[in-house]
Structure formats: C-alpha cells, structure tokens
Automatic annotation (TrEMBL):
SMART domains in alphabetical order: REC, Trans_reg_C
Keywords: DNA-binding, Phosphoprotein, Transcription, Transcription regulation, Two-component regulatory system
Domain OmpR/PhoB-type: 126-224
Entry-linked InterPro entries: CheY-like_superfamily (IPR011006), OmpR/PhoB-type_DNA-bd (IPR001867), Sig_transdc_resp-reg_C-effctor (IPR016032), Sig_transdc_resp-reg_receiver (IPR001789), WalR-like (IPR039420), WH-like_DNA-bd_sf (IPR036388)
Listed name of the protein: DNA-binding response regulator
Molecular function terms from GO: phosphorelay response regulator activity; transcription cis-regulatory region binding
UniProt entry tagged with the keyword Chaperone: no
GO terms (BP aspect): regulation of DNA-templated transcription
Any one Pfam family match given in the protein's UniProt record, by short name: Trans_reg_C
Residue ranges flagged as DNA-binding region: 126-224
One Gene Ontology cellular component annotation held by this UniProt entry: cytosol
4-aspartylphosphate, modified sites: D51
Domain Response regulatory: from-to ranges: 2-116
Length: 227
C-alpha cells in the first residue's frame, strides 16, 4: 500500500520505515503537521499514519482538514495520550482507528491489514520489493527495471536484495560482507566493490534515476538520487 507517515520522533520513524518497507509498502514521511497536511492533500495515499502531537499543526487538526478536503485515505492516529477524551477527539476529527504509544510493529501491521480488507485493497505483496522502477520478486528471484528483466548471478542477486531491503541506509563494506558473503571480518578483499560495479552496470548504467551511490570512505547507500 502507499502510506504516508506523519511523525516527528526520528527513532520511531526509522523503525516504522524499515518495517513497512520490508513488508512491501511504499512509504513517504513528513516530520511535522504542516508538511504532513500538504503531502496528504497532494499525494494519492491509501493510508495515513498520523501522530497527534506534532510540530506546527497538531494531528487532530491535520486529520480534520484532510477530511474537509475530501481525502479518503484510511487514517490511523498515534497518540501517547490514551484517555477516552483523546481517542474520541481523534475519531471525531475523521480518523478511522487509533493506536496508543508504545505499540508493537505486529499490531501496526495488523491494523494496516484491517484497513486493506475494509477498503478492498489487496494485502501488500510480501514477495515484491520495489524502489522507483526497480523491482525484485523474492519468490521467483526475478529482477526488473522499467519492466525489463535483468539477469543476475546468485551473488549479484543476494547483494541487490540486501541493498534494497536496507534502502536509504549507509552500509559499510563489513556489513555487506557479513550479510551477503557471511564473512564477519575484513579480509582485505575488494569483492564488495567489484560486485557493486557489476550491479551498477546491470541495474543503473542505462537507467534513471541512479540508485546505487558511494559514500566516500564509508561504504554504499541504495536510494533514489535527489535533484
């Protein structure tokens, strides 16, 4: 599902982002109420996860304005204030459901599945990973970019899947060695750089935007290049 997360706690954002991306959802993030409102009005989101206590415009007001503008996305409110009054305020503003912090990721995913059933949206495809126009079907081990099937070796595939599952995160060569080659120490090998180069030629060279980026002196990051 296409989801907007409006939350100002950076640590919680990181945790939710990693989990929902791994579950096959497409996630956008706003760190304050004003930005969240703008994105919610412009974006075609199926679900909006909305914190109550936000910088700028609070979550209750954001929800109210979204509903006034006839935004039909399912809205899940997050609140540290679990009193009946606060829950009622959130639901009355137009929210479909609420969760009290702290909550488990299992509960969050259950709420999202419930939204999918109610709205007729198919459950997210757990075997499909996607960034921009690059997709991996992890059941069939099929990689596509712009609809074109990309032939990869077994090692190239493992490396690409690891990068994709950790999108937007800087990965050191040691981390990559540990997870792709099961090597837990630096052997002085440049095998990571060699295979990154192989992948770039196959999945980046003839396409835009570029997705595999070097972080000089540190490692690599898989993300959509801004600008």
């Amino acid at each position: 599902m296409k989801i907007l997360l409006v939350e100002d706690e950076a640590k919680l954002v990181s945790i939710i982002q990693r989990d929902l991306t791994a579950e096959g959802h497409e996630l956008s993030v706003a760190l304050d109420g004003t930005t969240g409102l703008q994105m919610g009005l412009k974006g075609d989101f199926q679900v909006i996860i909305l914190d109550v206590m936000l910088p700028g415009i609070n979550g209750i007001e954001v929800c109210r304005r979204l509903r006034q503008s006839e935004v039909t996305a399912s809205i899940l409110m997050l609140t540290a204030l679990g009193t009946t009054e606060n829950v009622v305020s959130g639901l009355d503003s137009g929210a479909d459901d609420y969760m009290v912090k702290p909550f488990s990721l299992a509960e969050l995913n259950a709420r999202l599945r419930s939204f999918a059933r109610r709205s007729g949206i198919g459950a997210p495809t757990p075997n499909l990973l996607q960034v921009a126009d690059l997709s991996i079907n992890t059941d069939e081990r099929v990689v596509k970019r712009s609809g074109k099937i990309i032939a990869l070796s077994a090692t190239e595939y493992r490396l690409l899947e690891f990068l994709l599952r950790n999108r937007n995160k800087m990965l050191s060569r040691i981390e990559i060695l540990e997870n792709v080659w099961n090597i837990d120490f630096n052997m002085g090998t440049n095998v990571v750089d060699v295979y990154i180069n192989y992948l770039r030629k196959k999945v980046d060279k003839d396409f835009e935007p570029k997705l595999i980026h070097t972080v000089v002196g540190m490692g690599y990051i898989f993300k959509i290049q801004e600008g």
